[in-house]
Amino acid sequence: MSTPHLPFPIRSEASLGDETRRHFRTKTVATRLTPGELAEVEAAAETSSQSLAEWLRETALRARS
Fold first, then answer.
1. Which residue of 3, 7, 22, 57 is surrounded by the most CB atoms within 10 Å?
2. 21 with 13: CB under 8 angstroms?
3. pTM of the predicted model, to two decimals?
């Protein structure tokens, strides 16, 4: 059986040092929103030229200060 061709390189985490791996985001936070709330946060992220995840992360981390 041959190895399938992937359109992107595979990087092994084994080759990464501990310092690099420490900065990977590995945890997930879930929440439920109404359709209206989702539209609001999506619009805010788009206005900021950020992905929804980036906008939510930065907004949450900024609120802790």
1. 57
2. yes
3. 0.62
CA dist 43 and 40 (Å) reads 5
45 with 51: CB under 8 angstroms?
yes
Using one digit for the tens of pLDDT, what is the confidence trace for 19-64? 666 778 889 999 999 999 999 999 999 999 999 999 999 999 999 8
Query: C-alpha 53: how far from its chain's center?
Result: 5
Spatial contact of 50 and 57, defined as CB atoms under 8 Å apart? no
SS3 49: coil
